[in-house]
Specification:
There is one protein chain. The protein is an alpha/beta fold and 575 residues long. The chain has a six-stranded mixed beta sheet, with helices on both faces. A four-stranded antiparallel beta sheet has the order 2-3-1-4, with helices on both faces. The N and C termini lie far apart (63 Å). Helix 3 packs antiparallel against helix 4 and helix 4 packs antiparallel against helix 5. It contains 18 helices and 16 strands.
Length: 575
């Protein structure tokens, strides 16, 4: 059904555009996933764009709900300002950005929002075509600046073409939006001639294809119907460009393709994404460090909040760099499956990435452990203190792992039912899932240590379950208030040593309490002590406890990891 056209770009236009674009990406998601061959042929560009815009839409709806505005278009009483709606859209996209394409889309929306908010004068109903033109130009520039090494033939090229085409016309927002859409469509069709991997695969750039879909929704917002005489924004026309399998590719200066386009057999093993609270100066240093660690680096945001995306071989180092720059959270580490290559060619009409046979999905309590698990090949879900993941987050992680068989490690007794629900949902989607009831991240470490993907699934699960079950676990925490425990009455501020979930030791000193806990655990025997230090643990505690174990238990080894902001002062495992 045709939409009621918008004359000016106001808060209602932001809301309408987001809703139309989300619906269009939903229709085009699988097609965009299928042509995703650059920078990594992992078949998720459409999904990442959809999830990013879904977060933007949710933020806009929250802004309207906060002003008591209904779902109808009648009246403007209680409606948020254009600045409020645009900033909500940009913030929602930033915190929900997924993958390389989603991160760039978030920066495009942020660039537009900066101009939309600045152009609003408080007297008019919204901004006109000239203001929209400025917003499109600023968005393209902002996105290009966010990418460490811009490559032509990608969504950046399509965005720049849209902005350039908008500058060539004069008129209302509908006229400008249509010009931008047509310029983007023409640029999209040319991408296989700019990027060799696209030409070889016979496809256009997936990210650019997604942006054309979003711009088609912008036209529909102001014209009342999508480009092509009423076809939906995800429908036919330039948004569904296909090219011949063989395309003449323009050479880069000097006769060589950019490094990013080299026909490599493989690339970095991990995708690392996190939100980061940090100052501008720290982010500038972070960019330099991550640029040395990997590729596909995109850092977007500002005003103290950033979204960081990079492909690396050392996931732990990428997370550690974020910890040094500020406060990272919502960390997602994805291990690219066997057969994923940065420039591999997938044929049109089929997914760009084959499922791997088996993968591990694990919930981890801190940034340091996210890096450790990621380096071991696991797909991780970060459980922030007081914010346990929902079953939907676990299902999404299972999908990201893109495997036929999944071993799920909840690493928390309280997540048993949540993990079981996620496993059941994944099974309904045809994925074989084994849930190992790990109750602590140290049990997960033990299970991961014996994981062998080459074994039969059942044998691998049995070995991992046995290793986890043979690992006793403990943690140190600080009592928040007076309460009864298995070890007696504790006072607020006391150090509690919990063994297998129950309070076993109450002390006043962290190191002394840790010693008592380890002694009790080793009374039943053990060959290895694992220590996972939280950010608030004393600096010297690791060395002290290692010395204690070495002197008191000659046949026992100790291994130490940094867990980051994991909630507990110290996690202890004995196996």
């Amino acid at each position: 059904m045709p939409q009621v056209p918008q004359t000016f770009f106001d808060a209602l236009a932001v809301r309408t555009w987001c809703a139309l674009a989300l619906a269009a990406l939903g229709r085009a998601r699988e097609e965009i996933d299928a042509i995703n061959v650059y920078p990594v042929a992992d078949g998720d560009t459409g999904t990442n764009l959809y999830l990013t815009l879904e977060s933007a839409c949710a933020a806009v709806e929250a802004a309207f709900a906060g002003h008591g505005t209904g779902t109808g278009a009648e009246g403007t009483a209680g409606m948020p300002t254009l600045a409020d709606a645009a900033r909500a859209m940009a913030h929602g996209a930033l915190i929900g950005a997924r993958g390389n394409s989603g991160t760039i889309l978030a920066q495009l929306l942020r660039g537009m929002a900066q101009v939309l908010a600045a152009e609003e004068d408080g007297e008019s109903a919204g901004i006109d075509g000239s203001g929209l033109c400025l917003a499109l130009g600023h968005a393209a520039d902002a996105a290009r600046q966010a990418v460490a090494h811009p490559v032509e033939g990608t969504v950046l090229t399509v965005a720049s073409a849209a902005a350039d085409a908008a500058k060539e016309v004069e008129g209302d927002c509908g006229t400008v939006a249509r010009a931008a859409y047509e310029g983007a469509s023409a640029a999209l069709a040319a991408t296989p001639g700019q990027l060799a991997v696209l030409g070889r695969a016979g496809v256009v750039d997936a990210g650019g294809r997604g942006l054309v879909t979003v711009l088609a929704a912008l036209v529909e917002t102001f014209k009342g119907e999508a480009p092509g005489g009423g076809v939906s924004a995800g429908g036919t026309g330039a948004a569904r460009v296909r090219v011949p399998a063989r395309v003449e590719v323009a050479e880069a200066p000097g006769g060589d393709e950019p490094d990013e386009c080299a026909d490599a057999a493989s690339g970095p093993a991990f995708e690392v994404i996190y939100l980061l609270e940090a100052e501008d100066a720290a982010v500038a240093r972070l960019r330099e460090r991550l640029d040395r660690l990997g590729d596909s680096l995109v850092v977007v945001g500002g005003d103290g909040l950033w979204n960081v995306h990079v492909h690396v071989d050392d996931a732990g180092a990428a997370v550690e760099a974020g910890v040094e720059a500020g406060r990272p959270h919502r960390i997602r580490i994805t291990h690219f499956g066997i057969g994923d290559v940065h420039t591999g060619g997938a044929g049109v009409g089929r997914p760009a990435r084959e499922r791997v046979q088996r993968a591990v999905v694990a919930v981890v309590p801190g940034e340091g452990l996210a890096g450790l698990y990621g380096e071991a090949g696991a797909t991780t879900v970060l459980a922030r203190p007081g914010e346990p993941p929902a079953s939907g987050e676990l299902v999404e992680a299972v999908r990201r792992a893109h495997a036929r068989e999944i071993v799920l490690l909840p690493n928390d007794a309280d997540l048993r039912h949540t993990a079981a629900a996620a496993a059941e949902q994944a099974r309904s989607e045809g994925i074989r899932v084994a849930l190992i009831p790990t109750r602590s991240a140290v049990q997960g470490i033990a299970a991961l240590a014996v994981h062998e993907p080459e074994r039969r699934f059942d044998e691998d699960v049995v070995a991992m379950t046995s290793a986890a079950g043979a690992t006793r676990y403990a943690e140190l925490a600080v009592a928040e208030r007076q309460s009864w425990t298995m070890a007696g009455i504790c006072q607020a501020g006391d150090v509690l040593g919990l063994i297998d979930g129950d309070v076993a030791v109450i002390g006043s000193d962290v190191t002394a309490t840790a010693e008592a806990v380890i002694d009790r655990m080793l009374q039943a025997g053990g060959e290895m002590v694992t220590l996972v230090l939280g950010d608030e643990a004393p600096e010297a505690i690791a060395a002290h406890l290692e010395g204690r174990v070495r002197e008191g238990y000659l046949a026992v080894d100790t291994v130490v990891y940094r867990g980051g902001r994991q909630g507990a002062l110290l996690l202890i495992g004995v196996e």
